[in-house]
Amino acid sequence: MNNINLYGPYEGYIKGNIFKNLFNNYKNYKIYNPKVFNEEDELLLNINQICFYRHELNLLLDNYPNNKEILDLFNKYLEVEQQEINNYERRYGPLTVNSEMNNIPFKWESTKWPWDN
């Protein structure tokens, strides 16, 4: 398991697989690059790709629980994930029910939902 060949978080996210040796493009399928229209979109994309990457590393650890290299990478991205979530929540409010919610009324009551545009 030494020197495993992984994509970075963004490339793994858009391909749906972080393992370079397992990615196999389907027919003429074009990989979709998510469009970012504003800072909030960019922060959410960052969170999604880091969460995906960390989850894939978690699955790898299920199979190789003694791999220190993967464990270190997992812990690094767990920390990055929390930083990205905190960064988003400071600007735009809570993402999940587990987020700290110190303001009443809750921010989602006064902001537009994606389908309200």
Provide the number of structural domains. 1
Give the ordered list of helices and strands: HHH
Let me know the average pLDDT: 86
Overall strand count: 0
Provide the helix percentage.
40-55%
Number of helices: 3
The oligomeric status of these chains comes to single chain
Sheet-strand content, in percent, reads under 5%
- Rg (CA only): 17 Å
Main β-sheet description:
none
Sequence stretches where pLDDT stays below 50 over 5 or more residues: none
Structural class of the secondary structure composition? mainly alpha
Terminal-residue CA separation: 48 Å
* Morphology: flat
Descriptors:
3 helices, 0% strand, mainly alpha, flat
Describe this structure in words.
With about 120 residues, the protein is an all-alpha fold. It has one domain. Helices cover about 50% and strands about 0% of the residues. The chain is built from three helices and no strands. The longest helix is centred in the middle third of the chain and has 25 residues. The protein is flat and about 50 Å long. The mean pLDDT is about 85.
